[in-house]
Fold this sequence. Notes:
Layout: H1 2-85, H2 96-114, H3 118-127, H4 129-135, E1 143-145, E2 153-157, E3 160-165, E4 174-178, E5 185-189, E6 198-211, E7 214-223, E8 228-236, E9 260-267, E10 273-279, E11 286-291, E12 306-309, E13 320-328, E14 331-338, E15 347-353, E16 360-362, E17 376-385, E18 391-398, E19 409-417, E20 424-425
Antiparallel strand pairs: 1-19, 2-3, 3-4, 4-5, 6-7, 7-8, 9-10, 10-11, 11-12, 13-14, 14-15, 15-16, 17-18, 18-19, 19-20
Helix pairs in contact: 1-2, 2-3, 2-4
Amino acid sequence: MVVGGVVAVALLGTAIWYDADAHVRAGAEASTLRAAEVHLATLRHDKAVTDYADAVTTATRNNLQSSIGTTLNQLAGVEASLNNANAGSSLEGLGITALHTCLGGVQDALFSIAAHDNPGAAKAISAVSGPCASLDGGAKAGLVYPFDFPDPDVTLFGQIYYAYATNSVAGNIQIISSSDLTHWTSVGNALPSLPGWAKPNETWAPSVARVNGTYLMYYTADFAPSGTQCVSVASASGPQGPFIDNSVLPLECQQSLGGSIDPSVFIGADGTPYLVWKSGGPGSSKIWSQQLSAAGTAFAPGTNPTQLLAPDQAWEGGTVEAPDLVLANGRYFLFFSGNDWNSANYAVGVAQCAGPSGPCTDASPSPILSSGTEASGPGGESVFVDTGGKFWIAFHAWVPGAVGFPNSRDLYMRPLDLSGPLPSVAPPGSG
């Protein structure tokens, strides 16, 4: 009986243990199930939002296509009437031919987008960039590419200018090229695939340079596991790409500071590469610099980020971003954008620095480039040198009257004078 009692107690204890373990496992499984249900609900919500956005986009595109078709038909009638009334005269002066060509190209691009042919859409758009730019003021305003091309980076490689920009219809990183700074052609998607950690459709603000014989693209992407904005680097054998990023983790994130964005590569007079970028959001943004390794794909051992600039002028509205460090005649200028990017208050300022690691000081209490009658909210600037050694500043801006997302931020360029005490941007119409 004693033995039987011991066995019964042992069996009861085992049963209690298994029951307790089953409860623990059941609790864990229930917790996992709840987490899965939450994740599924999030996915369903995201899908619903995406479906709604797609529906709105499709409806908008269809309405635009219909409107363009109607306008083209009306233009055909106007052209016929004018030709009958003025036999042999040219219609170019009236801008009708340019309008007809521009709208035709945009219509082709919309058809390509509807067919999920984004490369075809990019080519259709770039093919009519000249006529479309002439309708928006063209050379008078400094407009060179009248389509969405935010956060541009323009660089001369050999005798060809390459411009890179934030993701849009052409892909993760847009790329266009020109031999004369006036006529631009779509090259395609410079970054056709993203590393596994990066969230799709969240890439922007590229900067490209040739470092130690390799073309490197520094860009911003969302770190999918945390949603933090981070900087990464991709490489290619030529400036046209494709750039490849096989990284397991980003190059820089600064999660405690609100993320890292807007990378810009700077090559010192001795060939040493540096990376300049921005951390944080409105009210907490800062601009940083750090030396890169000789290969440019990592930071130099033993180095740390150095703060170059924080917002300290009223016009900046608590934000400094989109840095571009330039060395001219022995002087270091840090160009940057300030204020709300999604408004006409966005503008370009400049600071003077002792070197690529600072210190830097705001050079003027006012921006050197701000909204005008030709362009609103200029920013995302890129300073470069043309084949003749002349400085230019490229930037994106809204067309006045169409400010704010989802309107396009078009590509503008104007001559830049760095010979005076402060940099000076040439007025619209200068070349």
